[in-house]
Every structure is written in C-alpha cells, then in structure tokens.
Amino acid sequence: MAHPELAPYLSGNAQWAHQTAAADPTFLPQLATGQAPTVLWIGCADSRVPESVIMQRKPGDVFVHVTHSCQFQAEDDSANAVLNYGVLHLGATHVAIVGHTACGGCNAAFAAPRDGAAPGNHLGRFLAPLIALRHSLPDTATADDLVRANVAEGVKNAVASETIQTAWAQGKKVYVHGWLYDLKTGLLQDLHYSQGPQ
Ligand SMILES: [Zn+2]
Question: Which Pfam families match (predicted)?
Fold first, then answer.
C-alpha cells in the first residue's frame, strides 16, 4: 500500500460496514432511499469534535456543516446553502451552532492584534470577523469567552438568515440553538441562546 498510514482508516470502514449490515441488514439500504435528520449541526472542523460520535447518533440523524473556528458568517454561501437545504428541503427542526473549548481558530483570533490577520489569504479573511469580535469584548475576557461570543454571533446570523426567516414565515417550528462542547469532559452544554418562531 502506497500510504500505510491510511490502512486503519479504510479497514476500519470495511469493518464498520460489515458490522452495521450484520446488525441490521435493512439499515443501510433504507438510508440510501433518503434522509430526514432532526438536527442540523453547524460546528468546527476540529478533529476532536466528531458530532455523531459524541452524541451517539447514527448515520441519518445529523445534517452537518463544519467551518473553520465554528463561524456562521452571514455572507458564507456554503454554510447558508447547507442551512437552506437542511431546513427547507430536509425538514431539520433544530439548528445547533456548536463551539468548543480550546478552539484553535478562536485562540488565534484571541491572540491577534486589532488590525487582524494578514490580508489576502483565505484564513486571514475568514478570521477577520472573529478578530473584530474579540476586540469588542472586555479586556478581562478569556479565549473561551470568545468561543461563547462566537456561538452567540452564529446564532444571531442564522436567525437573521433568509432560510430561518422564510421557515418562520411559512409557520415551520424551527429552532436555532447555541451549544458548547467541552473537550476535557466530553460534555455538550446548552448555552441558552435558543430562538424559535414567535
Ligand atoms: Zn474549533
């Protein structure tokens, strides 16, 4: 094999597929006919926050979009496309914006000077709003305060989005939540930022 470090990834998948089919032969063929996830998870790309693993969910349970540093930016077409499809087409009724402790992106933004990261590269441009958010916080704020503020900002942007406003105008019972995942304990915490239809 050209890249032996990949062997456990592929053999792990083969083993998982075999065990899943053995446990319930109808499960995977049924999934292949469609999906109706209840939850749309918008989280961080961080490898330590695998949403379905930490919530003990199965394939089909969670529609997922991850971004760098768990930002849900108002002008992000990719994130908004997932929100649109997940809520208006698949019928997800709970959108969870999920930050996590010790987030590398939030730590970088927390340490960045007020004038922001180097312009002209993707990472710098994407981090700019997070750096601005960091400098809107009090001097006593910690990096994890920035994580929570970033989740609050994501909830605000998701609520203001065309998708959520359309869903509510159509009378859909769709809710947007803010959650925090603690890497040290493995626990998800509801930050009580939830908003729903009036
Ligand atoms: Zn992160």
Answer: Pro_CA
Residues in the chain: 198
- Is pLDDT above 70 for 84? yes
Distance (Å) from CA 36 to ligand 1 centroid: 27
| Average pLDDT score over residue span 18-39 | 98
- Whether this model's pTM surpasses 0.85: yes
Residue 70 labeled ligand binder: no
Question: CA-CA distance, 162 to 180, in Å (whole number)?
Answer: 25
Identify the CATH number of the domain defined by range 35-190: 3.40.1050.10
Q: Which helix (H) or strand (E) holds 27?
A: helix 27-31
CA distance 198 to 184: 36
> How many angstroms does the Cα of residue 106 sit away from the middle of ligand 1?
7
Domain(s) labelled CATH 3.40.1050.10 in the chain stretch across 35-190
Residue 103 annotated as binding site? yes
CB neighbours of residue 70 within 10 Å: 27
β-pair type (39-44, 175-182): unpaired
Q: Considering only the C-alpha atoms of the chain, give the largest distance between any 2 of them, rounded to a whole number of Å.
A: 57
CA of 131 to the centre of ligand 1 (A): 14
100 labelled binding-site residue: yes
Question: For residue 49, what are its two tokens?
Answer: 């926050």
pLDDT at 116: 59
The reply, when asked if residue 76 is annotated as ligand binding, is no
